[in-house]
């Protein structure tokens, strides 16, 4: 049985990944410093023989005695509100954290997967975004700490692949949603659902004409798993290609929650990308992957999750 190290394993995506891997017969070693991750996300795994939690900051040297088959590097703040509050930790997770996890994978002769992001495309001038697009990023803007740390992480990953022949993969993850998102992480899905459920105004930033494309977490995890087992070393977009304006999305949440909340327009955050939509041709052809969950079905499960949160 392969041991898999999942950094950020107590986070939203990381914890679903631990569940999935254990289900597939792997042993998941979850590493997290719980800055934006949440121990509640892995509580149900505590007693599982195929699970182990290590509380550690991956920007510091990582020591693991076990053999490792895979290192999956998912640790990083990922919500714009989070990473703008802790930009230095974010830069360290993408730079030092990526260096440490790559070094560990090399030492253990493990395969490596980097969780990268659609933010490497910045405020894209091409829509939808194929992997071949180099992006339009403001390196010194408020989102630069996340965008540039992930761009650096991709560059370092490719360098380890080219120089050390490490078997590396890069997943460019687009907006993902589902149970275990943090209620107050500031992102659009938890914000709109919780505002709608409590009858508070739904805060649409700007005029709401900016677009995003939302992928249900189970679909995303399946894509990550297929990529992890593949022989692809170039970056691969993973996301849902159905694009919605944020205003349409607010109306949809209102409808699904049967909420009477009004829509309140607020200031658009600095450098907020105007459009975002993945071109997933590569994942479709090489991984035989595409999302299957309808937005209304995924949102129903997410709404249910938040209804049961305190
Ligand atoms: N947004 C919004 N209201 C909110 C939270 C977010 O209108 O309460 C918008 C935000 O300006 C952006 C989009 O929703 O255009 C997605 O924001 P999110 O923070 O989820 O992540 P991003 O895709 O920008 O990384």
H/E series: EHEEEHHHEHEEHEEEHEEHEHH
Q: Which CATH class of the largest domain applies here?
A: Alpha Beta
Gross geometry: globular
Radius of gyration: 19 Å
- Low-pLDDT regions: none
CATH topology assignment of the largest domain: Rossmann fold
Query: What strand order characterises the main sheet?
Result: 3-2-1-4-5-6-11
The CATH homologous superfamily of the largest domain is termed NAD(P)-binding Rossmann-like Domain
Q: In angstroms, what separates the terminal alpha carbons?
A: 38 Å
Q: What is the CATH architecture descriptor of the largest domain?
A: 3-Layer(aba) Sandwich
Overall number of structural domains: 2
Computed structural class: alpha/beta
Strand residue percentage: 15-25%
User: How many runs of DSSP E, i.e. beta strands?
Assistant: 13
Q: What is the average of the pLDDT values?
A: 98
Which percent range fits the helix content?
25-40%
Count of alpha/pi helices = 10
Main sheet properties: 7 strands, parallel
User: Which ligands occur here?
Assistant: uridine-5'-diphosphate
């Amino acid at each position: 049985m392969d041991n898999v190290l999942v950094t950020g394993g107590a986070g939203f995506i990381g914890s679903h990944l631990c569940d999935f891997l254990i289900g597939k017969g792997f042993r998941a070693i979850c590493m997290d410093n719980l800055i934006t991750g949440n121990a509640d996300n892995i509580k149900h795994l505590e007693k599982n023989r195929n699970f182990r939690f290590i509380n550690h900051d991956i920007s510091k040297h990582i020591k693991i005695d076990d053999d490792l088959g895979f290192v999956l590097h998912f640790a990083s703040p990922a919500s714009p509100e989070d990473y703008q509050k802790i930009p230095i930790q974010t830069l360290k997770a993408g730079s030092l954290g990526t260096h440490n996890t790559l070094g560990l994978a090399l030492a253990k002769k493990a395969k490596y997967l980097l969780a990268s992001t659609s933010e490497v495309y910045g405020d894209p001038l091409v829509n939808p975004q194929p992997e071949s697009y180099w992006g339009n990023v403001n390196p010194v803007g408020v989102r630069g700490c996340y965008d540039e740390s992930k761009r650096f992480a991709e560059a370092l990953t490719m360098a380890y692949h080219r120089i050390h022949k490490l078997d590396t993969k890069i997943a460019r993850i687009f907006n993902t949603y589902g149970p275990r998102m943090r209620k107050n992480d500031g992102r659009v899905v938890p914000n709109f659902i919780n505002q709608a459920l409590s009858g508070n105004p739904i805060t649409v930033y700007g005029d709401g004409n900016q677009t995003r494309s939302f992928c249900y977490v189970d679909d995303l995890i399946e894509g990550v798993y297929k990529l992890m087992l593949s022989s692809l070393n170039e970056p691969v977009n993973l996301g849902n290609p159905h694009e919605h304006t944020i205003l349409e999305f607010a109306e949809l949440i209102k409808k699904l929650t049967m909420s009477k909340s009004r829509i309140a327009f607020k200031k658009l955050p600095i450098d907020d990308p105007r459009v975002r939509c993945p071109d997933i041709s590569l994942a479709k052809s090489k991984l035989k992957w595409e999302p299957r969950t309808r937005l209304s079905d995924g949102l129903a499960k997410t709404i249910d999750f938040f209804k049961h949160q305190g």
